């Protein structure tokens, strides 16, 4: 979909675009909306990101409103009827109290015997909840929920037939058995339609309608109390009959109208089905998954969070259900003689509860506060209210505490369920976990009412004291659970805020919340987290953007011919309704600390993840045979005031053995260039280049990098575990700069027991060259071909090795000396003294003899039992000598000097595949940096073994001063395209003089 010049081509329609250009790597067929929907159902990660761009932000908003109307309206009415039918026994208790028509009088029950009504209800409810939830997917939600409603409606109506307490117990038993699975079934069904961060506000309004049960129950109890004795039927019997009939009727409505899964909704288009499923997080249940997997149940049971959430639910229900059960009785005991009026006093509590839920929904939907703050706040309010009820100050205080305490009780649940489902996995795992928590968490419903034993009447101080203990334990358990899930909650809040902000701009956030707190993820989930989201786009080879519904950009990968979604915001100004990506917190095993948090500075949007396993070797062989060219060299003055050009490394100075080294101590540079010039670490190299090669142009250079970064990227390409690192990417014209970033550019070594001897070995066995004693750290910049990429590499040299057995100067070496001498003769008098460039730039002093590369050496100090593996470091710097001092606790007993330059060819042959992968990685990094809006990016590897994550930048920071760029890069001609890096690199190789290989003529 791009034009021949590499520009961005507009696409007429999304469907036409998909049919013309989009091909799936797994299917190999043209993409249409139905194919996208089917793949989204099956959870193919390479299609999910693409399907998320099918609708604009405004279209998504309208679609989810339709889903709310279709799904949540029916589910809310179901929940309303469920609450009415389960709570009506509390209102029936005081209906027509003191008359022959009272339920306790007719059935001959005492207060404590009536408490068993709740216990009998919850026992089968607890046992059947989880199995019922496991069946809902197999039977389909509409069918199973309809069955539940019809059977519990029948059980509710059968309450009216009870003529003894045994009959009432039997009716309550079957009501609990038949109702089991309704509520967790709704929660599970929502997981197929909504993201966890969207569920809070839906559940809040779900509970608003559910809490109207308090209003309806009070009104119905008040109304039917006036029908006591009509047609020989008591008021409480009329209440159960009416509510049972209404529930049965609505059960048939659910059969026909309740949506099952997005893929089966006839009122959705194929595109809408695909979009709804694709927008869900990776751990969401899928309709196409197996109906039952034992493995997911076992994994759920091994997850400590399942047991913690279950304990939270149990503690909460024990502490609050008894109060809710006795709420009408407590109010009636305030001294109101008119029991019917006492029923109506329950209405303000329900209304207040609805208000609290509504206000909570308004705050919770914007991510202002962490999600656990809300339920913990409610628990604190409940604890205070129970304290007031325990003190029992007066009727007004009791009414106020009851109003507020029970008002916030219902608001606790809608904030807890999204927290719980955020960490469930798979269809079976989600079904089981939700059912398990809701069922065994309901044990409080069986225990709670017994706290209000009649011997504690009328004020129930002991009961409220015990309830306060359970609520306090619930608070402590919630805090501990929050600690265990803190990483996932941080992601959830961050993405919620990002989605709110994106919605204001008419944009959509694509990223998922990653369950960062689970120690051992399933293999499927783990591969989902690390595998790139890709789709095969045929033979396209340039970046492109899509208009219409396909908003986003995709970056072509040369090695695999695949395309990875990028943020369109990084490429073009954003039109209304576009799609952007938001970076998730990198998946981690522990929370960010000061050791790693600095790496996230200036990161903005996630652009790409690159797992090491996804790298493919480049087609061009990597070899050191074409040689290299020294561009410049320099030393830093010790005070950092200037650089000496060309400078020179210290001379190797053998010492009598054994020699005891002091432990390293004092300040040592991690990156002296970054320490001296934090804003432009590469500037000293280019100031030296100006002095030695003023007229050189670098338009044909692909990569400018330091040796340390190449070593880290090579280890990553090889799949070797390494410490976290960060690199910054900057494009200067067509050249990619890869800047090394460290937490600190200079560190203090205190000489502790675990400090090394490497720095002491260098200072003891070397001496500065004449006139360079006030300088430190010799740096060199060389240029060579790395596969198909023309690279400029900066590195530090430890020593100059001038023993008699060193190589004789070859023709190639003479070429290098001639180049350096020619550069020096071209210098003007001013240049040889000081660089009078822009204010604050690096000062240059011409000093030091030219040193040929054949004399350079790397120094390593190692324990006797360990030999240093420094070949990558030597190879990238084309350093021929490795001098190793073997020591025991600082006493050097042997020194060896090896000409490793002779082994370069063998090493690169052995590591050819890894080196080619490195070239592919560098090519990818360059392409990604070219595609971002500011042509800058940040590369992170925060955990050992993690993929590289590439972010765009919040603020653009230049990598070089403008005057340097103007001197060494020509302005790009309009409409001119640069040749492919590989083909260009091969042409440059032909122009390079051979330095390291004497067989190649200069």
Automatic annotation (TrEMBL):
Topology in membrane:
Multi-pass membrane protein
Annotated region described as Disordered, given as residue ranges = 969-1002
Compositionally biased residues, Polar residues? 993-1002
A single Pfam family it belongs to is MFS_1
Q: What is its main location?
A: membrane
Locations listed in the record: Membrane
Q: Where is the Major facilitator superfamily (MFS) profile domain?
A: 71-489
The terms describing its cellular component in GO are: membrane
Cite the record's Basic residues compositional bias ranges: 969-980
Membrane-spanning segments: 173-192, 204-224, 236-258, 304-325, 345-364, 373-392, 398-417, 462-484
Q: Which residues form the signal peptide?
A: none
GO function terms (MF aspect): transmembrane transporter activity
Q: What protein name is recorded for this chain? A: Major facilitator superfamily (MFS) profile domain-containing protein
* Species for this entry: Ascochyta lentis
């Amino acid at each position: 979909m791009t034009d021949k010049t590499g520009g961005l081509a507009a696409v007429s329609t999304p469907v036409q675009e998909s049919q013309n250009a989009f091909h799936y790597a797994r299917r190999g067929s043209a993409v249409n909306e139905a194919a996208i929907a089917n793949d989204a159902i099956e959870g193919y990660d390479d299609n999910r990101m693409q399907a998320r761009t099918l609708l604009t932000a405004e279209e998504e908003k309208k679609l989810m409103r339709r889903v709310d109307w279709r799904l949540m309206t029916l589910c809310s009415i179901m929940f309303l009827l469920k609450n009415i039918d389960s709570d009506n026994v509390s209102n029936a208790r005081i209906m027509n109290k003191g008359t022959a028509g009272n339920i306790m009088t007719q059935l001959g029950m005492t207060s404590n015997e009536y408490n068993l009504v709740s216990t009998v209800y919850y026992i089968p409810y607890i046992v059947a909840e989880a199995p019922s939830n496991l069946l809902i997917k197999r039977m389909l939600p509409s069918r199973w929920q309809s069955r539940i409603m019809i059977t519990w409606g029948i059980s509710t109506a059968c309450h009216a037939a009870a003529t003894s307490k045994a009959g009432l117990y039997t009716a309550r038993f079957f009501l609990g058995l038949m109702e089991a699975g309704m509520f967790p079934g709704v929660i599970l069904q929502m997981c197929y339609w909504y993201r966890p961060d969207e569920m809070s506000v839906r559940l809040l309004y779900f509970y608003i309608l559910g809490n109207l049960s308090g209003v309806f129950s009070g009104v119905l109890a008040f109304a039917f109390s006036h029908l006591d004795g009509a047609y020989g039927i008591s008021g409480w019997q009329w209440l159960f009959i009416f509510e049972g009939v209404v529930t049965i009727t609505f059960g048939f409505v659910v059969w026909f109208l309740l949506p099952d899964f997005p893929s089966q909704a006839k009122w959705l288009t194929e595109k809408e089905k695909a979009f709804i499923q694709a927008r869900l997080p990776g751990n969401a249940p899928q309709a196409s998954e197996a109906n039952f997997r034992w493995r997911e149940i076992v994994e759920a049971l091994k997850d400590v969070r399942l047991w913690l959430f279950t304990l939270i639910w149990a503690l909460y229900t024990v502490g609050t259900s008894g109060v809710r059960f006795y709420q009408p009785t407590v109010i009636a005991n305030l001294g109101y003689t008119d029991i019917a009026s006492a029923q109506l006093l329950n209405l303000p509590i329900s209304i207040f509860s609805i208000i609290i839920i509504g206000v909570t929904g308004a705050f919770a939907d914007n991510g202002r506060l962490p999600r656990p703050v809300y339920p913990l706040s409610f628990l604190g309010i409940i604890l205070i209210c129970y304290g007031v009820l325990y003190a029992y100050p007066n009727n007004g205080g009791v009414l106020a505490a009851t109003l507020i305490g029970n008002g916030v009780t219902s608001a606790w649940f809608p904030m807890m369920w999204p927290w719980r489902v955020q960490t469930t996995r798979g269809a079976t795992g989600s079904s089981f976990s939700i059912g398990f928590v809701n069922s065994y968490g309901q044990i409080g419903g069986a225990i709670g009412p017994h706290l209000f034993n009649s011997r504690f009447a009328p004020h129930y101080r002991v009961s409220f004291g015990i309830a306060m203990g359970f609520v306090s334990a619930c608070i402590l358990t919630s805090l501990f659970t929050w600690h265990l899930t803190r990483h996932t909650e941080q992601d959830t809040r961050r993405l919620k805020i990002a989605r709110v902000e994106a919605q204001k701009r008419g944009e959509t956030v694509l990223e998922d919340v990653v369950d960062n707190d689970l120690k051992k993820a399933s293999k499927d989930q783990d591969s989902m987290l690390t595998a790139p989201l890709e789709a095969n786009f045929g033979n396209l080879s340039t970046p492109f953007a899509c208009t219409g519904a396909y908003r986003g950009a995709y970056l072509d990968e040369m090695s695999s011919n695949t395309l990875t979604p990028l943020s369109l915001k990084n490429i073009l100004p954003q039109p209304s309704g576009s799609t952007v990506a938001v970076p998730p917190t990198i998946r981690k095993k522990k929370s960010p600390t000061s050791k790693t948090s600095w790496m996230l500075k200036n990161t903005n949007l996630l652009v790409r993840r690159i797992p090491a396993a996804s790298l493919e070797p480049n087609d061009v062989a990597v070899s050191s045979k074409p040689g290299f060219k020294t561009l410049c060299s320099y030393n830093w003055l010790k005070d950092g005031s200037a650089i000496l050009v060309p400078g020179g490394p210290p001379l190797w100075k053998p010492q009598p053995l054994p020699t005891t080294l002091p432990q390293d101590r004092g300040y040592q540079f991690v990156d002296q260039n970054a320490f001296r010039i934090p804003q432009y670490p590469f500037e000293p190299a280019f100031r030296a280049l100006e002095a030695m090669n003023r007229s050189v142009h670098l338009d044909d250079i692909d990569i400018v990098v330091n040796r340390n970064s190449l070593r880290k990227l090579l280890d990553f390409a090889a799949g070797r575990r390494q410490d976290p690192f960060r690199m910054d990417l900057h494009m200067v014209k067509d050249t990619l700069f890869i800047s090394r970033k460290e937490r600190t550019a200079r560190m203090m070594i205190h000489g502790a027991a675990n400090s090394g001897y490497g720095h002491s070995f260098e200072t003891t066995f070397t001496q500065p060259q004449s006139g360079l004693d006030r300088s430190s750290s010799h740096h060199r910049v060389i240029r060579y071909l790395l596969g198909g990429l023309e690279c400029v590499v900066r590195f530090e040299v430890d020593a100059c090795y001038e023993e008699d057995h060193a190589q004789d100067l070859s023709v190639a070496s003479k070429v290098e000396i001639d180049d350096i001498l020619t550069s020096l003769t071209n210098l003007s008098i001013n240049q040889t003294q000081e660089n009078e460039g822009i204010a604050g730039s690096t000062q240059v002093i011409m000093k030091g003899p030219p040193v040929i590369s054949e004399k350079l050496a790397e120094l390593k100090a190692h324990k006797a039992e360990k030999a240093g593996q420094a070949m990558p470091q030597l190879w990238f710097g084309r350093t021929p000598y490795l001098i190793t001092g073997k020591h025991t606790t600082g006493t050097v007993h042997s020194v060896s000097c090896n000409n490793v330059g002779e082994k370069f060819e063998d090493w690169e042959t052995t590591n050819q595949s890894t080196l080619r992968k490195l070239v592919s990685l560098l090519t990818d990094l360059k392409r990604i940096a070219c595609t971002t809006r500011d042509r800058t990016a940040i590369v992170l590897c925060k955990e050992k073994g993690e993929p590289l994550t590439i972010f765009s930048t919040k603020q653009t920071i230049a990598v070089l001063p403008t005057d340097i760029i103007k001197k060494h890069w020509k302005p790009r001609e309009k409409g001119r395209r640069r040749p492919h890096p590989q083909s260009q690199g091969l042409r440059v190789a032909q122009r390079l003089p051979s330095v390291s290989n004497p067989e190649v003529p200069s």
